[in-house]
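Run: sequence + ANZ -> complex structure.
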Amino acid sequence: MKRYNPTEIEPKWQKVWADEHRYQAPDASDKPKYYITSMFPYPSGAGMHAGHFFEHSIVDAEARFRRSLGFNVTYPMGWDSFGLPAENYAIKTGRQPAETTKENIANFKNQLTRVGASIDWSREINTANPEYYKWTQWIFTQLFERGLAYQKEANQWWCPKDKTVLANEQVVNGGHCWRCDSLVIKKPMKQWFFKITDYADALLEEIPALDWPQKIKTAQENWIGRSEGAEINYAIDGRDDVITVFSTRPDTIFGATFIVLAPEHPLARELVSDETREMVNAYIDEAIKKSEIERSSENKDKTGVFTGSHAINPASGEKVQIWVADYVLGGYGTGAVMGVPAHDERDFAFAEAFKLPVIEVVERPDNSSEECYHGEGTLINSGSFTGQASSDAREAIVAWLEQEGHGHSKVTYKMRDWLISRQRYWGAPIPIIHCPEHGAVAVPEKDLPVLLPEVADFEPRGDDNSEGKSVLARQEDWVSTTCPDCGRQAKRETDTMDGYACSSWYLLRYTDPRNAEQAWAPAKADYWSPIDMYVGGDHAVAHLLYVRFWNHVFFDMKLVPTKEPVKKLVYHGLIQAEDGRKMSKSLGNVVDPLEVIDAGYGADALRTFELFLGPINENSNWSSKGIAGVYRFINRVWTLTQEYIDSNKQGLSDARKLESLTHATIKKVTDDMYRLSFNTAIAALMEYVNELYKLKTDGFIEEWQDALSTLVQLVQPFAPHVAAELWQALGHDSALDTAKWPMWDDAKIVTDVMTIVVQVNGKVRAKLEVSPNETEGVIRDQALADENVKRHLTDEPKKVIYIAGKLVSIVV
Ligand code: ANZ
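>> structure
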């Protein structure tokens, strides 16, 4: 008998698949399409570790499953190669990013090939390739023409070490750079932004209908952070101008006893008197250095300074003090608030600290003991509005303010416009030319791409260049150009685009990756969009929001068929090291997948093992024992099949039982596959193999051909190489990839009953009669639904343990 030798069969099948372009999907087919991929990697120097392979094991199992269900499946792959990580890696190794990126890609590609992923390589893309970034630039110009890309001077987070501007989400751990952990500072600079706020409502509206994990949908909602309220003008005592505040509780206006300006507020330094000037300026200088997270932390002691000026509460007519305090943020609302200490906790803490008056204006319920009641109730101390319910008064007060010219209703968003420009080398140059006559002019399509020049020295050096521009500013020949409108001497924009721009449309480029005339042909996007399943395991809130934003814009441009780009999103857990910690080079606990494969386990065992570890959305730990166990399982599949092939098929095993077992397994595995419950599908296959070994003692018969062919088909999504080999060995001429997923027939599943005892806290409370093929979930549900069991469930069950075929034990 032939021995199982993955080292021999895996490269053989990988070659067949590559030579025959087996996984190349046509752009038209009478089959329904299925577009699946994972969030594309940035090709780092470290390569992928076994944890990264988890993602591809998931995507590939699903891709192979869908293929055999009869879908036209594409599983494309590409490289997110522009951006800081690649550039920093190149700087660290003292080499050109173009060169190191190329090497890293080759390494990643080899790894993915060795794991047997059924990738449609005809669609491979690389965001740092001019053929690709030409279109990233083109999209920029389209956004620019639509007023969705603009430049403005803004205080930006600046990392003094990486010498680049950072977006809010790249400032972490209370004011540190996400890449190098240096303390970041604020610096005023002219920056490019995409106007994502124009799409805030549209993006919010579509969230409920998305087939995405709730956790991620909530994160998107919070990021957008829609607040309904009002802008209210407070006249400044002794001046002609006003302070506009944003409040979500205009109904509490009679309780507004002070005004607070953010340190960044343009009036903060102006409303001072000779006595307060020095203190206010010193306070502001300190405050603007702090991070927003630090400033808005709930339990931080409130700090602030009185400006010396007063404002008039438009409702009560009372004079109130104007303060500057860092708990009010410059970039949110209007950067000014009305302080209502009786009903807002932050204002309450502030009033306590500085002995400011507190006026209750919403009646609190009798049982409320909070110092500061922030709920709804009947208005008190509120002039003619006294006696109204606060929720009704909200509208009435805004209507009154509007009538009197003191304010209007207003919707505000937490989300800011997307800061896109980077002062770094390794990115797509922003396709703009600055003309002394015409200002910022988009580079015409015929002149795209604006090639990133090759430069010997690409290290950022903020010091020789006080404005903190990218190294492109040093390439004088490149910078100097002519205006596309008037032909006069002009200068190129020297900022590059944030890597998020490249990754915001790659899913569409996969639909038409070689198009030299267009970013993609709308007809191809019509066929493939939206993506049916998108798999990721990172905190991808920003990425997912940007992908959605661009797709909404493309929808408005009639370039894509749907507003939303991603139908189903799957979020997977991490495979951690054997020690339970995250795999990381610095901890020395990284498992190299190629080493595992080369050690003789093979890719099939590696993939199957990773999916067997647990539910895909949970974290699990690597286990060297575990992989040995899974290897044994695959070996048993091999041996059983080879023994059957070598046998005379004249045995006496029970054909009916064999068929029943097979059909029950198809049913269970198919159901699990649809639910992406790969670990239970693999467990069912192991169980099936155990049962087959028992039956085998009576000797093989011809009917085993079907049973083993089915086994091989069901194993294929997890262990495609051994499956392909055994499929051929079983005498099938056609490729396993094109074979139809097996169907079960309920009539063929023998339903003798088994009795399951149900215990509650150790006492027998029921006996269930169930089919031996019944799934665990159904048996548990039946146990919990039993009338007598329910009577003894005094509380929510703490634990429900199922011992297969015997017992359900409920602990309350
Ligand atoms: C008066 C008031 C009374 C408020 C009350 C709340 C409760 P969200 O839900 O986050 O939008 N606010 C407005 N602008 C601010 C800024 N730049 N920095 C810090 N706080 C700011 O919260 C809106 C509320 O947060 C606004 O409503 C304002 O306080 C405060 F019983 O106004 B409120």
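>> summary
The radius of gyration is 32 Å. The pocket of ANZ is lined by residues 227, 246-249, 252, 262, 328-329, 332-333, 335, 337-338, 340, 343-344, 374, 412 (CB under 6 Å).
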